[in-house]
Design goal:
The protein is mainly alpha-helical. Helix content is about 70%, strand content about 5%. Strand 1 and strand 2 form a beta hairpin.
Length: about 270
C-alpha cells in the first residue's frame, strides 16, 4: 500500500462517516423526544401531507361530536320542559273533570277555575323562560352541523320546536266556571296533551339521530387517529435499537478518525 502525504483519504472517509452517523443520531434523538417519526416536511413529504389531512378530519369530527352533544342537550331540555307541561296538563284534566260534574258551589267552581288559570300561566312561563346556553328553546329551529372537514361529509340536522303557549295549545279561551265550559275545556286539554306528546315524539326522533351521529363520529375519530398514528408516530422499539446502533457507529467512527490521523503522524516521524 502506498503512503500518501498530500491527502489523508482514510481520515476524510472516517470524518464523513462520523458526520453521517451524527446526523442520523440527531434525527433519532428527535424522534425519541417528540415521539414522531415525521418532525418536518423533509422527513417524509407524502407522509406529512397524509398526517396533516387526517388531523384536519379528526379536528372537524371532534367538534362535530361536540356539536351533536350540544344539539342533544338542547332537545332534551325542550323534552324535559314538555314533560313538565304534560304533568301539569294531567292536573288540569283532573280539575276539569271535577268541574264538569254538577253540584259544585260557586266558590268551588271559582277555586277550580283559579287553579286552571294558574296552570295556563305556568305553561306560558315554561314556554318563555326555558333556555339552553342562554338561547330560548321554544319557537326556534335547532340546527346541528356535523362534518368530517369535507363538503361531501357535511350535514345539517334541523328540528323545529314549536312555540309553547296556552293560546298555541288552544287553551287560553277555556274556563271552568260552569259544567258546560269545563267539559269543553276538558276536550281542549286532552287535545293539548296529544299535541305535546306528538312534539315530544318528533324531538325524541331527532335526539336518537344525533346520538347515532355522535357514535359514528366517535368511531371515525378512533379509526382516523389510529391511521394518523401509523403514519407519523415513531416506533419506539425500532428507534431505540437505531440509537444503540448509532452510538456504536459514532464511537467506532471516532476511533477510525483517530487512527487515520495517527497514521499521518507516523509519516511525519519518518521525515524527521
Amino acid at each position: 500500500m502506498s503512503i500518501q502525504v498530500l491527502n489523508n483519504i482514510s481520515s476524510l472517509v472516517a470524518e464523513n462517516a462520523v458526520s453521517n452517523t451524527q446526523t442520523d443520531l440527531q434525527k433519532t434523538l428527535q424522534e425519541l423526544s417528540t415521539g414522531l417519526k415525521i418532525n418536518s416536511g423533509s422527513d417524509d413529504p407524502a407522509g406529512l401531507s397524509i398526517a396533516e389531512g387526517l388531523g384536519a378530519n379528526i379536528s372537524a369530527l371532534t367538534q362535530s361530536s361536540q356539536n351533536a352533544s350540544n344539539g342533544v342537550g338542547l332537545l332534551q331540555t325542550a323534552d324535559g320542559a314538555l314533560s313538565q307541561v304534560n304533568t301539569i296538563l294531567n292536573q288540569a284534566v283532573t280539575i276539569a273533570t271535577e268541574a264538569s260534574n254538577s253540584g259544585l258551589t260557586t266558590s268551588q267552581s271559582t277555586a277550580l277555575n283559579t287553579e286552571f288559570t294558574s296552570i295556563l300561566s305556568e305553561i306560558d312561563q315554561i314556554g318563555s323562560t326555558t333556555n339552553f346556553n342562554g338561547t330560548t328553546v321554544f319557537g326556534t329551529t335547532a340546527t346541528t352541523f356535523t362534518s368530517d372537514g369535507t363538503s361531501a361529509g357535511s350535514t345539517s340536522t334541523s328540528t323545529a320546536i314549536d312555540a309553547l303557549t296556552s293560546a298555541g295549545l288552544g287553551l287560553s279561551a277555556d274556563s271552568l266556571t260552569s259544567t258546560t265550559a269545563a267539559q269543553a275545556a276538558l276536550t281542549d286539554i286532552t287535545a293539548a296533551i296529544a299535541t305535546i306528546s306528538a312534539e315530544r315524539g318528533t324531538i325524541g326522533a331527532s335526539v336518537n339521530q344525533l346520538t347515532s351521529d355522535e357514535g359514528v363520529e366517535s368511531t371515525e375519530i378512533q379509526n382516523l387517529t389510529s391511521s394518523q398514528n401509523n403514519v407519523q408516530n415513531a416506533d419506539v422499539a425500532t428507534v431505540t435499537s437505531n440509537l444503540s446502533q448509532q452510538d456504536v457507529l459514532e464511537q467506532t467512527g471516532f476511533y477510525a478518525l483517530s487512527s487515520s490521523n495517527q497514521s499521518e503522524q507516523a509519516v511525519e516521524k519518518l521525515l524527521q
